[in-house]
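Students often ask why we bother encoding 3D structure as a string. The short answer is that it lets us treat folding as translation between two languages. Here is a chain of 147 residues written in the first language.
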Amino acid sequence: MRNAFSMIELVFVIVIIGIIAAIAIPRLSITRSDAQYVALQSDIQTVLSAVQSKSLTDDITPTSLNGDLIMEVAGLNPTKWIATSTGVRLAKDGSIDNVNNCVMIDFIGNSLEFSIDNTISSALCQKLSKIYKRKLTIPFNDNSIKL
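And here it is in the second language, the structure alphabet:
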């Protein structure tokens, strides 16, 4: 009776594990990027609706709107977003994510503007630019957001 596996049996097991890993690892990275994409879409919609809701329930003026207000009202995760003086940007390690710096949500003049910079070549930015093809502007009228 044998007490151990033969060398050929071990080689076959290692080859099978390698094939499974070669198939599974790329799928896991695709799943991660898809999850980031969906989370960003959700955050964008949350920002747009939360700012509109805040303008309807509270008397806010365009001069009081900045990135900190967006972060607070929309409940954005500070590990994924960073407040600027005019709006919010995608963040990584506590600063603006230079690789994925394509999402622009800013208060400009008397409006809230949202756009995706389609010149950024990251996969995430290219996916977002396919969905959000043009700039969205929510204008202010008489110190409130006009819906």
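Translate back mentally: The beta strands are 81-83, 87-92, 95-96, 103-108, 111-116, 136-141, 144-145. Keep this in mind for the problem set.
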